[in-house]
Design brief:
The structure holds 2 protein chains of 2 kinds. Chain A is about 75% helix and about 0% strand. Chain A has helices at about 1-10, 15-35, 40-50, 55-70, 75-80, 90-100, 105-130, 135-140, 140-155, 165-180, 205-225, 235-245, 250-260, 270-285, 295-320, 325-335, 345-350, 350-380, 385-400, 410-425, 430-455, 465-490, 495-500, 505-520, 530-555, 575-590, 590-605, 610-635, 640-645; strands at about 180, 190. A two-stranded antiparallel sheet of chain A has the order 1-2. The longest helix of chain A has 29 residues, at about 350-380. The radius of gyration of chain A is 24 Å and the shape is globular. The N and C termini of chain A lie far apart (about 65 Å). Chain B folds into 2 domains: about 35-125 and about 280-325, Bordetella uptake gene, domain 1 (D-Maltodextrin-Binding Protein, domain 2, 3-Layer(aba) Sandwich); about 130-280 and about 345-360, 3-Layer(aba) Sandwich (D-Maltodextrin-Binding Protein, domain 2), CATH 3.40.190.10. Chain B has 15 helices and 12 strands. Chain B has helices spanning about 5-20, 45-60, 80-85, 100-105, 145-155, 170-175, 190-200, 210-220, 250-260, 265-280, 295-310, 310-315, 320-325, 330-340, 345-360, and strands at about 35-40, 65-70, 95-100, 120-125, 130-135, 155-160, 180-185, 205-210, 225-230, 235, 240, 285-290. The chains are: A mainly alpha, B alpha/beta.
Chain lengths: ~650, ~350
């Protein structure tokens, strides 16, 4: 093995391989920074050029590209609150909060360090295990996979906030939303409102953009002049490094989570960062500061999302089974240049395998170094007046959303979840819980059904299943005891008078209940196999909502009452939501480029009160950027329904 | 990205060719942008098919047009196919179709507003299918007919994406051979099914030739999996012949004849035949929209033919295209018709057969 590793190193450090790797890293950094574009977009674009080049060059370029997107996607997550890719959603929570406190530099340097260590950890795990990973992966059958999904479900409990039923209701709501679209078993469309768009399940990136990016942007717009209210972002690089090394074991634990879950096909990057975040919340001292700008909340997901690449390569290389779209493209590229991943390659072409591992490691080092280099310049964004940034960010959100399936429906979904997210943030509903519930829904539904069909009750004779069941029980007990000790010193329930004053929360609660009643009712029309999961999920939502309201009255300290909206800034809560909806509507109707020409200047003049010339300059620059993007890499923009109708 | 030398060279070549064959070469895509639609997301088999062809079609179509691959995913290829149905046949838009584009047109209900028999096939790329089981079944070293008789007596679990998934072709084959005690396990794609078989959780499998060669063959060599039949291949006269990729393995048709002493016929055979046309003969395909002129179709077909004999393409595609005869013109059209034509009674029987074997209502 050592000989193979050294042989591969010789290839890996050759100028030829390094130059292609470098090219891949640069491309990966770019697609990672632009929200909506990720590893899969980058790989899809490079595939036509891969055909026919030398295999080691192709490995360098493709792995370089794929491995660093998880490093550079931190920039927008931390600096402007828009996740760069789906796998850095959890970074937004504490990273953006740090930026708002003027600690962007610290957040970024901690994130890059964690990313680097996580990425290298993933590469080491891959090196050590690839030789004997086959029996390990084979030991995880349908039943064991179901238990891993349940483990992730159990971890949601720690993300729920003050009223545990409220958090669980949000998670159940996420699961219910996850049942929209064709059933993972019978392929019969559910709750698709007779549209073609909703035949396939909603893309998780849209829910992430809606729930996390939109509410943050609107909230900063309302309340703050600049993202960074404190000192400029320039300082804190050293603190970030120190913070990362002070939390070295957290990085290692989260990296392990990342590589293990990464190896599990179908779970995907969008949930790994949250599981790491949840783990941090469970295991660190003083977890209550997480969510308010705690550097550990940045370190945990960033370590995990880089480490996942090493894990995700395992099933791809061993069985030729890609766990995600980007792994599928990577596989496609390998086959194009004549590398055929599979058990044969592991057994007979170890040097190719280790060249891959070296590429992962080197790409992470290059990527982190370049991010450190770029950061001081990019971090200045937080000092810009936010009213100038907001319209650009809203345009980028529309652009990013449209990349999901290139359908106007993408914009509708991001609009719905943007407003939902804004209300959830205001009324204190856990957005991570809803998102994880959503991501796990189809996997949970399919694996429960498959396990029952294949094993029946004999599932409880499997040792790994029993061990995982014990871990799940331990987590649940820990969560419940934690929440009961915490609730003792929480605030008292709010007086009934306040209930009457603000009906918004009740309307919001009622709309959740009504949605669940509708799905429960229309879920009856399906056959048993198609209908069982939506029916269970809608019942769970309703029961948990009732428990939430009951606990509010009968268990002291379990108030579900929450209203974050204090004081008025630039505009009111409703106005900011309407501005957002107008932006999206304009993009849907007139198209992206026309919106840049029309909506952006209007916003800048009316809201940001800039001169017309400044507004023209900003929208011109944005237009130029988008046009260049289109000319160089052929991305698509929403074209506008009006023009289609006219012609 | 832009290679001036090769551009000049090819322009000169184009001019010379144009002079030599001026009357026949009225069509020229020089300076045009051609879109190959893929009704699936990036990274799937159809996407790979399009992206493998992309640079070579650009090289071999007259005028070396710029070709882009545009993914239009949605509704299991229904969205893209509906859009393609409305597209003008000017030769500037083509679409890749896969087996599920065919199955969706049958099972997609009123949402599938497209008729593939109205489209103009440029090329159909067939790919054989192989049936296999695990070592647990204990058929290693047995004759195919003996193996089937042994499998008939046992109960089985078969992983399948959905009740109307393309793996139905294998269920029809199993039923035809009298293997009927099969519990379907839904929600498992090819990769998950293969892994579950290696773990011994499921025991029946089907795989297209190229995936079989890459991902199953290592296990058949080490004895964990055993292949026992191919679904066969149809010649131009609708006769079953041996799979060109695995000519030494018997077909389902042959094993049926051996066991029953006569050729298969009746509704189940008709369903099987249709499913093989969908799943083997039209495994991947490239279409031009309805109403495209025969000249344009010919220019495209010629470009594909030139691509197929381009040594660089043979290298880039890993030889997948040279194993099976690629279908053009009338034989392509005939295969599409054979895959999709169904009388009302046949349709009724087909749907009720699926409901019975899959144990779910459609």
């Amino acid at each position: 093995m050592l000989v193979d590793i050294l042989n591969a190193a010789q290839q890996a450090f050759s100028f030829f391989h390094l130059s292609y790797l470098f090219l891949g890293v640069v491309l990966g950094l770019m697609v990672g920074i632009i929200p909506g574009l990720g590893g899969s977009a980058g790989l899809a674009l490079t595939l036509p050029f891969v055909a026919g080049i030398d295999p080691s060059a192709a490995i360098g370029m493709m792995i370089g590209l794929q491995a660093v997107t998880a490093t550079s996607d931190t920039f927008p997550s931390v600096l402007v609150g828009v996740p760069g890719t789906a796998s850095s959603q959890a970074t937004v929570v504490d990273g953006f909060a740090m930026s708002k406190k003027g600690r962007a530099a610290e957040a970024l340097s901690a994130a890059f360090t964690a990313s680097l260590i996580g990425g290298l950890f993933g590469a080491i795990v891959l090196t050590v295990t690839i030789g004997f990973a086959e029996p390990v992966i084979l030991a995880f059958g349908l039943a064991e996979q179901m238990m891993l999904v349940l483990l992730a479900v159990a971890l949601i409990g720690s993300l729920t906030g003050s009223n545990v039923f409220k958090g669980l209701a949000a998670a159940a709501m996420g699961m219910l939303i996850g049942t929209i679209g064709s059933s993972p078993t019978t392929a019969i469309p559910r709750f698709s409102l007779d549209t073609i768009y909703l035949i396939e399940p909603i893309k998780v990136v849209l829910i992430g953009l809606g729930l996390f990016a939109v509410p943050e942007i609107l909230s900063v717009l309302r309340k703050q002049e600049r993202i960074s209210e404190g000192a400029l972002a320039g300082k804190g690089w050293v603190q970030g490094l120190k913070a990362a090394f002070a939390n070295f074991w957290l990085i290692i634990r989260c990296s392990s989570i990342g590589s293990i879950l990464g190896a599990l096909p179908g779970l995907g990057g969008s949930v790994i960062d949250w599981v790491a975040y949840a783990h941090a919340k469970q295991s660190v001292k003083n977890p209550e500061t997480l969510g308010t700008g705690d550097v550990r909340g940045v370190i945990a997901p960033e370590a995990a999302n880089n480490a996942k690449e090493g894990g995700a390569l395992m099933p791809t290389l061993l069985f030729g089974i890609p766990g995600s779209a980007s792994m599928a493209l990577l596989l496609g590229g390998f086959i194009l240049v004549g590398i055929e991943p599979g058990i044969d390659m592991i057994r007979n072409e170890a040097d190719t395998v280790y060249l891959l591992v070296w590429s992962v490691a080197l790409a992470n080092i290059f990527g982190a170094a370049m991010c450190f280099g770029l950061a001081p310049m990019i971090a200045r964004l937080t000092a810009v007046r936010f009213a100038l940034l907001a319209p650009i960010l809203l345009i980028i959100i529309c652009f990013a959303a449209f990349q999901a399936t290139k359908d106007i429906g993408d914009l509708v979904i991001v609009a719905v979840f943007g407003v939902l997210g804004a209300f959830m943030k205001r009324y204190g509903w856990s957005r991570p819980a809803l998102l994880i519930g959503f991501v796990l829904a189809s996997k949970l539904e399919a694996s429960v059904y498959q396990t029952i069909t294949v094993y029946g009750s004999s599932v409880f004779t499997k040792p790994i299943v029993l061990v995982l069941a014990a871990i799940i029980a331990f987590i649940l007990i820990k969560t419940l005891t934690k929440s009961s000790t915490k609730s003792k010193n929480s605030e008292k329930p709010v007086s009934t008078l306040l209930w009457l004053r603000s009906s918004g929360q009740l309307v919001f609660l009622a709309s959740f209940a009504l949605f669940a009643i509708w799905t429960l009712y229309s879920g009856q029309q399906f056959d048993q196999l198609t209908g069982f999961f939506p029916v269970i999920a809608s019942s769970a939502v309703l029961i948990l909502l009732i428990a939430m309201v009951a606990s509010h009255f009968f268990i002291p300290g379990n108030s579900f009452w929450n209203d974050d909206e204090t004081g008025s800034g630039l505009m009111s809560f409703s106005t900011s939501n309407i501005v957002f909806l107008l932006f999206v509507a304009c993009v849907a109707l007139l198209g992206l480029l026309a919106s840049v020409i029309i909506t952006v200047p209007i916003f800048l003049v009316l809201v940001a009160r800039t001169k017309l010339s400044v507004a023209g300059l900003i929208s011109g620059a944005l237009l130029l950027f988008l046009v260049l993007l289109r000319l160089t890499i052929d991305v698509e923009f929403p074209e506008g329904m009006v023009w289609a109708l006219v012609s | 990205m832009f290679n001036r030398k090769s551009f000049l060279r090819s322009s000169v070549a184009a001019v010379l060719l144009g002079l030599a064959a001026a009357p026949a070469m009225a069509l020229d895509f020089a300076g045009k942008k051609i879109t190959i639609m893929v009704p699936f997301k990036e990274g799937g088999g159809s996407d790979g098919y399009a992206r493998t062809l992309q640079p070579f079609l650009s090289k071999h179509l007259p005028g070396n047009p710029r070709i882009i691959v545009k993914n239009v995913p949605g509704g299991g290829s229904i969205k893209g196919a509906n859009k393609f149905q409305m597209t003008e046949g000017d030769g500037l838009t083509a679409m890749v179709a896969s087996t599920s584009t065919f199955t969706s047109s049958i099972f997609g209900g009123d949402k599938a507003r497209y008729d593939m028999t109205s489209w103009e096939p440029v090329v159909l790329s067939p790919q054989g299918s192989i049936l296999f089981t695990t070592s647990k079944a204990g058929i290693g070293g047995m004759s195919p007919a003996g193996a089937v008789e042994k499998l008939r007596a046992a109960s089985h679990k078969f992983g399948i994406k959905s009740p109307t998934g393309s793996e139905l072709r294998a269920v029809a084959a199993f039923n035809l051979l009298g293997i009927e005690n099969i519990e379907p396990v839904f929600g498992l794609g090819a990769g998950a099914r293969r892994q579950a078989m290696i773990r011994g959780e499921l025991d029946l499998g089907v795989e297209p030739f190229s995936a079989f060669k890459r991902k199953v063959a290592p296990y058949t060599e080490s004895g964990e999996l055993t292949a026992f039949a191919t679904l066969g291949f149809f010649d131009d006269f609708d006769n079953v012949i041996r799979d060109p990729g695995l000519p030494n393995m018997k077909t389902v048709y042959e094993i049926y004849r051996e066991l029953n002493g006569r050729a298969p016929e009746g509704q189940l055979w008709e369903a099987y035949r249709r499913l093989v046309y969908m799943g083997v003969m039209t495994s991947k395909s490239l279409f031009l929209p309805q109403g495209t002129s025969p000249e344009i179709v010919k220019v495209w077909s010629d470009a594909v033919k030139k691509t197929l004999s381009d040594p660089k393409f043979i290298e880039a595609s890993g030889g997948d295209f040279s194993v099976y005869p690629q279908l053009f013109g009338n034989s392509a059209k005939r295969s599409v018709l054979n895959a999709l034509t169904m009388s009302d009674t046949q349709r009724e029987w087909f749907f009720s057969w699926i409901e019975k074997t899959m144990k779910v209502p459609l």
